[in-house]
Alanine--glyoxylate aminotransferase
Amino acid sequence: NLLRVPPPQELLQPLAVPERLLLGPGPSNVPPRILAAGGRQLLGHMHPEVLQVMDEIKVGIQYAFQTQNRLTLAISGTGHCAMEAALLNLLEHSDTVLVAVNGIWGQRAVDIARRLGADVHELLKPPGEYFTPRDIEEGLAQHKPSVLFITHGESSTGVLQPLEGLGKLCHRHGCLLLVDAVASLGGAPIFMDHQEIDVLYSGSQKVLNAPPGSAPISFSERAREKMLRRKTKPLSFYLDVAWLANYWGCDGEPRRYHHTAPINTFFSLREGLAMLSEMVSGTRQAAGHRHQELLPTITTVRVPEGYNWKEITAFLMDNHAIEIAGGLGPSAGKVLRIGLMGCNSTSSNVDRVLRALRDALSRCHRSRL
Ligand code: GLV
C-alpha cells in the first residue's frame, strides 16, 4: 500500500461555519445576493460572459472611484496584493519613493518598496495623527520622490487622511500620488479624478461586502506613462499591469490568457459593486456629517483602563458571536476596533455591539490598579 498518509478524519466531517456578526476591520458579512453570485456555476476565464462581467466590474470600479481612467481593473488577490501591485509596477530599482507613515499600512508600503530596491524615505507622524498639506509639501521638497504613498483610511488607528489638494501638490513637484483606500472606499468620499490621484486601490471584503480575493485598482494617464517609460520589467509576472491591462481589455488589443482568474470571486465583486451603485447616494449624504478626520468605517476606541483587550474581544466572540478586533501594528494592545461596513452598517448592529460591550465591561475581569 503506497498510501502512507491516510485520508484525514477531519475532512470526512461536514464543513463547519458558524454564524457570526463580523464587526472587525474586515472582512465584513456577505449579504445573500453576493454569496449567491459567488456560488454560481463556473465558466471559463476567457468565455465572453466572464469577459462581460469583468467589463461590468471595470465600470463599477470607475463609478466607485469616480474616475474615467481606461486602466481600471481588479487584481486577483486581496487589497494587500493591490498594494504590492501598485508599488511594483510604479517603482523601478533606485526610484525615489516617499511613504507617509502614521500606521501599519505605511509601514507595510515601506517594507515592500525596500524589497523592490527603491530609495525609500519615510514621512513620519505619530499613530493617530494625519498629514497636513504642509507636511507633505516639505517631504516632497526635501526628498524629490517620483511617487508618494499615503493611506486614506488607516485601519490600525481609525484615522481618515484628508486628500484635498494633495494630488495637485504632488504634480507640482513632479511626483505621482498613490493612495491606499482599502478600509475607506464606499464609507468615506473619494474622487480619484477630481483629487488628481494617480493610483488608487481598495479591497473587496470591507464596504463592498464581497469575500476577500479581488482588489479594485486604477491608474491615471500620468501613472500609465511612467509605467510605459520603465527600463526594466516589473518584478512579478502575475502582477504585471501590462499583462493585466490586456486581460481586462484596457489596451485595445485582443485579450490574451494571462492567469486563470478567480471567476466566482469576480461574480461576487460584480454584485458588491452593483449594490454600491444602487445605494451610494445615501452613503455620500451621511458621510457629509461626519467628523473630518475619523475613519467612518472603523471606530477605534481606547481599551478601557484596567481591562485586557483580548478578554473583551474573546467575550464578544464566545458570548455574542460578534467579532471586533484589537489594535494592529502601532495600536496593538491599546485599542478596540469596531467595523461597520456596507450591509453591516445598521443601527441594529450598533445597538447589538453596544449591548455586547456593556455586557463585556460588566463581566470581564478588571484588574485593580
Ligand atoms: C486589516 O485590514 C486590519 O485593519 O486589521
